[in-house]
């Protein structure tokens, strides 16, 4: 288990995902695929090969009839405060250095050894088994924000990092403070498109951002908190069984109890 | 390159296996990896100014008001339009994939003429249009010889198509089956008229009976926004949502309560609820209240339990919720948006009457002014029409198909396709090579929504008259297409008919004007809304007296087709960018996975993972079984949208088509063909 020191950043970009609002529609997955130029795969049912930076899991309370409940859990990269993936990378292709705490992935450096994939307990990392092949002509609909990755490298969610750069640029141009972006000035594609607004995004250390309070709410929790990776993605659910499933390794044994703020 | 990057790295890494932990070698490996990543085979990104243009994205049934992001003029992404009061910045998963769909490999690239079984030849537009005119000229004036099937419920194109048919002396204008058609019939049975609407935003309790309002019923995104507004993250919810239906679907997942109700028992469930509400003191001033009360009294908790499996406590808890609500609304519909009977609608809607919510929770929309003077409306749906063709009662010589896929999306699909194939001349106006286009003699490629003018009046479900319109985002379509309405208007004039317009853009401008809306404001992403009309409804008691609960025996199961919007629709196979959203419990390789609860599986003699065959009528569907406790008893849930025989490599031949095993029956007393609640036999293979 990784119990290394968490790096402190003045700005800590984070998500708070309201699982009681997520219908599991999948728009966030599609928006992510479009934003990040992930090529469609002919057999997308082969989940060992697909690349889903954002993946919506289905959780069930395992009861039947009128007692049955399901919840959908969108899982981006948690941008862990103390990531398990970073120290295992032999070529420093993934780092947690930049202000904001986003864990980077430098494709030209990645040698595809996949140590990071094995280390990540959230299965947030994906390996390119093939080169990206877009149907003829579809490359004209590539997003200008991210280059497509070749086979042999690992990739993952980076909170739509280009949007972060653009938001900072815009703040500079408008005479604002790029290191203190206003709430909503920077939004990943999934959070922007979600039709129920289940995904809130902002600086979890900034009182002006609504995620500041949401992340400390009484029903907020993080996945597998006991592992101590200190994720920057928080979840909220009023349903106890959902919270229990989410942090079923929580040190206290009480669902949703541990809310160590990074 | 003789040696690709991966091979190269492998060799180097292999060579250094013993010295993994000396930093020096990692530094040089790092350099090697940078050096080797020249990647000439990876597609380059487009450059240019990034803009966001308003568009009406009619890829989903209701249509999303969106902004299309372009780079150097080329669309690459879709975001919500926060200024549009209907979508409020939300986008459905299909429209989210809209830009990539412009380049779908399934797009029809030019006009095509059939030259043999499954063989087409590209022809010039002028030849294609001449062929269309020639065929129509030959049949002009002979009623019954020319028919049209329209799959677009909201666009003004329907006015042009029906107007053209009327001008040619034909009345065979048919809509693809949808909720709107059935609901309007239902309203008539309740002594009213017009399209019903439902005010989800204004309700503090929303009871969805069958209708998957938070995923694929009505104006999905507007419904989701209304739902979301009542659930501020981190604070108390201000409205309750209850889903009663055959499957714990996306709507049920976020509802406060899910009540499993088999698809054939939704009317019994609603009437059982009415009985409990009346027992708890509910009264109505509707003229048929006494009759209704007597009828509802037959649906005792025991009867409801027999029909649905629901225990008395569940029903009573729901009654308490309704009693505590100030502004409840009940929405009834099929779990997959079609095939339900008018009686199912009336049973659900009667609860709104009983609760005194007509005019507020449930509204009626006034008839809208027409743009095309000769336009008519359809009194029969395409399923009933093709049934008549099959039995020789109707004998069209030419069929025009507009934005519809009847060969795939009607019950007993294979039979429907055969019937359709027997019509002498069929022309399909379609953007994609769908199952129907593949059967047609002439395929006229239609533009993608971001390449055309279009509009949407009163998408089903809106509480107030609502109108949206859009114009092309791009200067030129990706393929050699023409607007279908422009083509039809051109054909009309060659046939000596004037419908009053030269282009679809003119029709839409006239429609906007007739409504008192400003087209330019609409095309810029705006919306026009009017007021619902007044008027009351009765409880539909005399119609409801005919409700019969279809019986399933030990050998048959009720089928609950499930629609997940992300998987596409009848007129759209799963878009390439949405393939990832299909779960491993839904499709595995080429196998469709059907779901049922453990008790049902036991009764049917099947187990998790078994390969099964579901059959009904002449249709058969092959699948694997997955156990899911969120499926109502005696029911098998089958995901809609798979088993494509046309389209592209991403969808063709994957899974199976549930429409093949849906069977049509006549609804007592309404003359409607219904197929929600079809039953199937299940056999292990
Ligand atoms: S877009 Fe929103 S509602 Fe849909 S799956 Fe993603 S988080 Fe859930
Ligand atoms: S979620 Fe996984 S990939 Fe993302 S930072 Fe944490 S350990 Fe690394």
| Biggest sheet descriptor of chain B | 7 strands, mixed
Quick one: CATH class of chain A? Alpha Beta
Order of helices and strands of chain A: EHEEHHEEHHEHEEH
| Strand order in the sheet with the most strands of chain B | 5-4-16-15-14-6-7
CA(first)-CA(last) distance of chain A: 18 Å
The CA-CA distance between the termini of chain B, in Å, is 49 Å
Average pLDDT of chain B works out at 92
Write the layout of secondary structure elements.
The complex is a heterodimer of chains A (about 260) and B (about 675).
Chain A (H helix, E strand, L loop, with lengths): L12 E6 L8 H9 L19 E6 L9 E6 L9 H4 L26 H5 L5 E3 L26 E3 L4 H13 L15 H5 L5 E5 L6 H5 L5 E2 L11 E4 L3 H7 L16
Parallel strand pairs in A: 1-8
Antiparallel strand pairs in A: 1-6, 2-3, 4-5, 7-8
Chain B lengths: L4 H11 L7 H14 L13 E8 L6 E8 L2 E7 L17 H4 L10 E5 L2 E4 L2 H15 L6 E5 L6 H11 L4 E4 L3 H11 L5 E4 L6 E5 L10 H10 L10 E6 L4 H5 L2 E4 L5 H14 L9 H8 L4 H8 L3 H13 L3 E5 L9 H13 L7 E4 L16 H9 L7 E5 L10 H9 L3 E6 L11 E4 L8 E4 L8 E5 L13 H11 L9 H12 L3 H5 L4 E2 L11 H4 L11 E7 L24 E2 L2 E6 L1 H7 L6 E6 L2 E9 L7 E5 L25 E2 L6 E2 L4 E6 L1
Parallel strand pairs in B: 6-7, 6-14, 9-10, 9-12, 10-11, 14-15, 15-16, 20-25, 22-24
Antiparallel strand pairs in B: 1-2, 2-3, 4-5, 4-16, 8-13, 17-18, 18-19, 20-28, 21-22, 23-24, 23-28, 26-27
Helix pairs in contact in B: 1-2, 4-16, 5-16, 6-13, 9-11, 9-12, 9-13
Bound molecules: iron/sulfur cluster (2 copies).
Give an overview of the whole structure.
The complex is a heterodimer of chains A (262) and B (685). Chain A has 262 residues and is of the alpha+beta class. Chain A has one domain: Alpha-Beta Plaits, CATH 3.30.70.20. Chain A has helices at 27-35, 85-88, 115-119, 161-173, 189-193, 210-214, 240-246; strands at 13-18, 55-60, 70-75, 125-127, 154-156, 199-203, 220-221, 233-236. In chain A, the strands form 3 sheets. Chain A has a 4-stranded mixed β-sheet with strand order 6-1-8-7. A two-stranded antiparallel sheet of chain A has the order 2-3. Chain A has a two-stranded antiparallel sheet with strand order 4-5. Helices cover 28% and strands 20% of the residues of chain B. Chain B is built from 20 helices and 28 strands. In chain B, strand 9, helix 7 and strand 10 form a beta-alpha-beta unit. The longest helix of chain B is centred in the N-terminal third of the chain and has 15 residues, at 125-139. Mean pLDDT of chain B is 92; it is low at 1-36. At the A-B interface, helix 1, strand 2, strand 3 and helix 5 of A face helix 1, helix 2, strand 3, helix 7 and helix 8 of B. The complex binds iron/sulfur cluster (2 copies). The site of one iron/sulfur cluster (SF4) has 14 residues of chain A, from helix 1 and strand 3.
């Amino acid at each position: 288990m990784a119990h290394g020191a968490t790096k402190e950043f003045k700005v800590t970009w984070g998500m708070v995902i309201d699982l009681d609002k997520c219908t599991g529609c999948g728009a966030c997955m599609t928006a992510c695929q479009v934003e990040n130029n992930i090529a469609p795969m002919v057999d997308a049912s082969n989940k060992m090969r697909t690349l889903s930076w954002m993946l919506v899991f289905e959780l069930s309370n395992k009861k039947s009839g009128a007692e049955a409940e399901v919840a959908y859990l969108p899982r981006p990269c948690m941008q862990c405060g103390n990531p398990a993936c970073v120290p295992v990378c032999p070529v420093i292709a993934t780092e947690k250095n930049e202000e904001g705490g986003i864990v980077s992935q430098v494709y030209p450096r990645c040698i595809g050894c996949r140590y990071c994939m094995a280390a990540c307990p959230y299965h947030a990392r994906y390996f390119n088994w093939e080169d990206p092949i877009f149907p003829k002509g579809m490359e004209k609909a590539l997003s200008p924000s991210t280059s497509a990755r070749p086979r042999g490298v690992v990739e993952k969610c980076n909170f739509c990092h280009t949007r972060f750069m653009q938001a900072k640029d815009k703040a500079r141009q408008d005479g604002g403070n790029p290191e203190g972006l206003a709430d909503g000035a920077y939004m990943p594609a999934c959070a922007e498109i979600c039709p129920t607004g289940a995904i809130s995004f902002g600086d979890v250390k900034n009182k002006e951002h609504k995620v500041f309070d949401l992340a400390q709410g009484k029903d907020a929790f993080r996945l597998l908190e006991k592992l101590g990776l200190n994720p920057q993605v928080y979840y909220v659910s009023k349903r106890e069984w959902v919270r229990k499933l989410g942090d079923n390794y929580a040190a206290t044994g009480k669902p949703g109890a541990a809310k160590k703020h990074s | 390159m003789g040696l690709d990057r991966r091979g190269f790295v492998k060799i180097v890494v292999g060579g250094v296996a013993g010295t993994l932990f000396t930093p020096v070698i990692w530094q040089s490996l790092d350099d090697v990896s940078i050096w080797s990543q020249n990647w000439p085979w990876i597609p380059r990104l487009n450059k240019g100014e990034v803009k966001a243009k308003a568009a009406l994205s009619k890829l989903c049934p209701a249509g999303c008001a969106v902004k299309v992001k372009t780079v150097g003029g080329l669309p690459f992404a879709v975001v919500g339009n926060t200024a549009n009061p209907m979508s409020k910045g939300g986008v459905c998963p299909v429209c989210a994939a809209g830009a990539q769909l412009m380049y779908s490999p399934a797009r029809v690239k030019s006009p095509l003429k059939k030259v043999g079984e499954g063989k087409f030849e590209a022809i010039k537009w002028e030849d294609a249009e001449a062929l269309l005119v020639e065929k129509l000229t030959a049949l002009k004036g002979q009623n019954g010889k020319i028919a049209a099937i329209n799959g677009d419920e909201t666009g003004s194109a329907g006015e042009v198509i029906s107007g053209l048919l009327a001008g040619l002396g034909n009345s065979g204008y048919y809509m693809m089956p949808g909720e709107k058609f059935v609901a309007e019939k239902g309203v008539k049975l309740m002594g009213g008229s017009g399209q019903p609407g439902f005010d989800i935003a204004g309700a503090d309790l929303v009871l969805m009976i069958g209708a998957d309002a938070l995923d694929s019923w009505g104006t999905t995104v507007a419904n989701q926004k209304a739902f979301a507004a009542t659930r501020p993250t981190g604070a108390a919810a201000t409205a309750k949502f209850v889903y009663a239906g055959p499957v714990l679907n996306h709507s049920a997942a976020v509802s406060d309560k899910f009540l499993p109700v088999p698809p054939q028992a939704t009317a019994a469930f609603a009437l059982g609820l009415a009985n409990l509400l009346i027992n708890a003191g509910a009264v109505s001033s509707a003229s048929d209240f006494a009759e209704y009360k007597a009828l509802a009294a037959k649906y005792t908790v025991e009867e409801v339990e027999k029909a649905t499996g629901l225990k008395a406590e569940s029903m009573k808890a729901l009654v308490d919720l309704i009693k505590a609500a100030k502004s409840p609304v009940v929405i009834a519909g099929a779990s997959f948006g079609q095939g339900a009977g008018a009686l199912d609608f009336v049973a659900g809607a009667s609860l709104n009457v009983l609760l005194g919510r007509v005019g507020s929770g449930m509204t009626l929309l006034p008839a809208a002014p027409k743009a095309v003077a000769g336009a008519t409306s359809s009194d029969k749906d395409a399923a009933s029409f093709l049934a008549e063709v099959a039995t020789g009662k109707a004998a069209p010589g030419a069929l025009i198909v507009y934005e519809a896929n009847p060969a795939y999306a009607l019950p007993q699909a294979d039979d429907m396709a055969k019937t359709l194939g027997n019509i002498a001349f069929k022309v399909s106006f379609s953007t994609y090579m769908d199952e129907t286009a593949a059967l047609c003699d002439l395929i006229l490629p239609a533009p993608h929504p971001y390449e055309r003018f279009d509009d949407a009046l009163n998408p089903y479900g809106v509480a107030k008259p609502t109108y949206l319109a859009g114009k092309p985002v791009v200067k030129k379509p990706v393929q050699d297409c023409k607007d279908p309405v422009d083509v039809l208007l051109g054909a009309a004039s060659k046939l000596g008919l004037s419908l009053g317009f030269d282009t679809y853009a003119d029709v839409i401008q006239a429609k906007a004007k007739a409504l008192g809306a400003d087209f330019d404001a609409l095309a810029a992403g705006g919306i026009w809304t009017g007021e619902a009309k007044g008027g009351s409804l009765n409880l539909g008691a005399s119609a409801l007296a005919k409700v019969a609960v279809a019986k399933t025996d030990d050998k048959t199961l009720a089928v609950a087709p499930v629609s997940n919007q992300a998987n596409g629709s009848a007129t759209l196979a799963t878009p390439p960018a949405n393939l990832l959203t299909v779960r491993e419990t839904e499709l595995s390789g080429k196998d469709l996975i059907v779901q049922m609860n453990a008790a049902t599986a036991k009764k049917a003699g099947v187990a998790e993972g078994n390969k099964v065959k579901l059959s009904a009528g002449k249709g058969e569907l092959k699948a694997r079984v997955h156990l899911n406790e969120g499926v109502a008893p005696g029911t098998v849930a089958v995901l809609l949208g798979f088993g494509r025989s046309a389209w592209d490599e991403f969808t063709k031949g994957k899974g199976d088509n549930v429409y093949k095993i849906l069977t049509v029956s006549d609804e007592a007393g309404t003359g409607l063909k219904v197929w929600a609640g079809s039953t199937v036999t299940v056999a292990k293979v």
